[in-house]
């Protein structure tokens, strides 16, 4: 056994592979994943079994926990079939998000093959572990092919993984990031041309189908061309270029063939098909985070601008300013004259300048058409531009000599403090993280300044250590077992009863994305990547066709609310009338006759007037069941009270409860009472009585509404 471990230590590649296998066995055996679905288990399903092992789920990662993971659940619930039979809309699951569908496309989704063989919780875990390993190994091999040492290549790859864009978008777009280097690697080998072309085709098609997201993939394809022009210009000779182009065209053609129904239906949509953008819009603070990664948020990942944390994500490393300050420029200039470095930096630098222009300058949409950049929001180009910036750093590390001196350290310190003063202190955010990182950096520099033989490794390791401190805790460690084996809770049982009582259709307001369908419900609330125009035409025949297209012709997060007509408040959101799908409970409201002064108080309600009329929305105490409750009202006429209908509200719904505070409705005791006329009230009193035992309560009034005298 001792000889075995000694042999491993002498062979770094074998040691790395052994460690990856050992950690992978642990990771998958525990069903671990980077998912934030624990938020759904905790907040929506009210389950004590959240599966959270470490960290905490991030509500901001709703693209993952409300869309990708629930649609994966739905695919599993449909036995890996193409069409979602559990959905109200019977939608096609061949969409932009790669789903583990058991069809010929599965051959091009190798990280999902385990869904065909084992429990989905293990398959989900293995998929994400493979994505992590492929990321680290892929970029390390790419940097190794560019001439960097093996050890330094791995460290730089870890730096790239531990950046804001990678971590803030990891649990959804991780496959796009991780599989990209593998598209290029076959072309870096000495294999026969036919084998390189065949492998390149398979890997490129897998990259596109495992997660199809053109804004990042188109920009990464541009970076891939720059990389090959820099490292393997021989691929652009007449003898090899046709094979490269044919492999790329075949991969694109296979993707179009597989996703034809999805692509053809989204091409004419208002969103995403109708999206054309110009350049610019990325703030100076986000651009500064390319060099000082924590400059745009605090230690709790609260952004310092009016945006969410994911939109601040950039590929920033402390390694970049370290190289700027500690590289011997004279020696670098000599290397540029005596080696291929000058040509390589000119090519890579020109590509980066073009990308930075699109990211930072207010260019018109037509300026990006030649590269299809008019379909890429500039903020989404930051991962690709960061990869190219990292590649430039790799070229410099390969040839540069580093010098640590008091003057250089002073320049680096001044840059760090200057950015902190400008973007944090000067903007009113007394947040000290960046100065703490500066202190750690200076201590590390003091410790390694004489170790010139390994200075490059030490600076890269320092950057990686700080990146781990900043970003390593963003994504949680979440067991996938409760994701695919949902704990049975009171909320889920009540939702099933609501669905059964509503002729097999669940019309529950307040839920987000595809979470309900992922849990197995035939829910109105859902995510439909392609518009179902014929379905909505049948549901709302009175709508004008133009109006209906304006509302429904888009990728849609379908939501329910107290409205009379569907409308679209944002590019990817469509709001549907709750009353259209939930008929409500009639004859359960009457004019009050009891003395409310004798009742105890409980629950709460608010009052609004909208196009329906008067809406009383609130919740009952935990020991009151809505199905067993009769409401009584003082302050309206008997005819108005008798014409009211009651709608069930979900635990995901919230109301404004005094002082403009959002208060979530507990469990499934929420109600919405619709009185069919707009009223100007002098007073209002709402009581609730249980049919079974006659127990009655006075529901607490909103602060703005006076209770009627008893």
Give a short summary of the structure.
46% of the residues lie in helices and 12% in strands.
Supply database-style keywords.
710 residues, 18 strands, 27 helices, 12% strand, alpha+beta
Word description of this protein:
With 710 residues, the protein is an alpha+beta fold. It folds into four domains: 1-30; 31-60 and 94-471, no CATH class; 488-581, no CATH class; 585-700, Sandwich (Immunoglobulin-like). It contains 27 helices and 18 strands. A nine-stranded mixed beta sheet has the order 8-13-16-11-10-18-17-12-9. It has a four-stranded mixed beta sheet with strand order 4-5-7-6. Helix 2 (12-29) packs antiparallel against helix 5 (120-145). The termini are far apart. The mean pLDDT is 88. Residues 19-397 form the DUF7657 domain. The chain crosses the membrane at residues 121-143, 150-170, 176-195, 207-229, 241-263, 275-295, 315-333, 345-367, 379-397, 404-423, 429-448, 455-474. It holds the Pfam family DUF7657.
